[in-house]
Specification:
Blueprint lengths: L9 E4 L5 E6 L3 E8 L6 E4 L7 E4 L23 E9 L3 E10 L10 E10 L3
Parallel strand pairs: 1-3, 2-8
Antiparallel strand pairs: 3-6, 4-7, 5-6, 7-8
Length: 124
């Protein structure tokens, strides 16, 4: 699989969880996961990948408001899509772990998780 660049990030979804991958410095990952913010749950990082990966804004993606002006609010329980982007910043190994749950219940079991084992190599 080709590594994503800043112009075209490598898109990952829930089915990609558990993968190991190698990326060159500068490659960008875009992780897209189902979410339901009306439940109070959100995707949270629980890892320590140091200087190997950086969280970066997802280029070209505009965050849509949950409720648009002049439109009724969606019913409670309506799903949405959470998007997170990470850039391979320095050679090394990182374990990306995201879990889905309520921030105010850190000791509870996650409702979902997403993880990657990422090795970053020097750019060619």
């Amino acid at each position: 699989m080709a590594a994503g660049t800043a112009a075209s990030p490598l898109r990952l979804v829930a089915a990609d969880s558990g993968r190991a991958m190698t990326l060159p410095v500068g490659a960008v990952l875009r992780v897209e996961l189902d979410a339901n913010y009306s439940t109070g749950s959100e995707w949270q990082r629980r890892d320590a990948f140091g200087a190997v990966l950086d969280s970066v804004p997802c280029e070209g993606l505009v965050r849509e408001p949950l409720v648009k002006a002049g439109e009724p609010a969606p019913p409670v329980g309506t799903g949405s899509l959470a998007r997170y982007c990470f850039r391979a910043a320095a050679p090394g190994r990182a374990f990306l772990y995201l879990f889905y749950g309520r921030a105010w219940q850190p000791d509870s079991s996650p409702l979902g998780s997403f993880n990657l084992d990422v090795t970053v190599t020097p750019a060619a």
